[in-house]
Write a structure and sequence with these properties.
By secondary structure, this protein is α/β, with parallel strands linked by helices. Helices cover about 25% and strands about 30% of the residues. The radius of gyration is 15 Å and the shape is globular.
């Protein structure tokens, strides 16, 4: 999803149809609806982020982004995946869940200092506001997120 902020407006690409939507920055957390397809603009499921899409999906996002650094061979990573899907569904429009496969995206993983997985980092724009290493149960992850969102 590509977003850009100009003055007090935000442009966001709809996660369903790809249409560009523009709305006031102050209303970004109101869970906007796409003018074309009438679906919610922000995704209700985790999005895949790569080295090439990092900036557009994470740093340019008008809503906070929880990035899960994972690998397919990691058991705890697979255990936390359903928890993140549930959180994406529950907090859609207020929080985006992004997943970075560390094996396929070494540049972002290295720049973010990932040494152990699963690792989760919470971003507001380009700023990291929190991090958590290791698999957490849903209640603990919800509690941790509440401190920041």
């Amino acid at each position: 999803m590509e977003t850009t902020a100009t003055d007090d407006k935000v442009q966001a690409v709809c996660s369903t149809c790809g249409a560009i939507n523009r709305f006031p920055y102050a209303r970004r957390l109101d869970d906007p609806t796409c003018g074309k397809c009438k679906q919610k603009v922000f995704p209700r499921k985790p999005v895949t982020v790569t080295d090439a899409t990092w900036r557009a999906e994470v740093e340019d996002s008008p809503i906070p982004v929880l990035v899960d650094f994972w690998a397919p061979w990691c058991g705890p990573c697979r255990a936390v995946a359903p928890v993140l899907e549930a959180i994406a569904q529950e907090r859609g429009g207020r929080l985006k869940i992004a997943k970075v496969n560390v094996d396929e995206n070494p540049r972002v993983s290295s720049l973010q200092g990932i040494r152990s997985i699963p690792a989760m980092k919470l971003f507001r724009g380009p700023l990291e506001v929190g991090q958590q290493v290791g698999a957490l149960p849903k209640e603990a992850l919800d509690s941790w997120l509440e401190r920041f969102i």
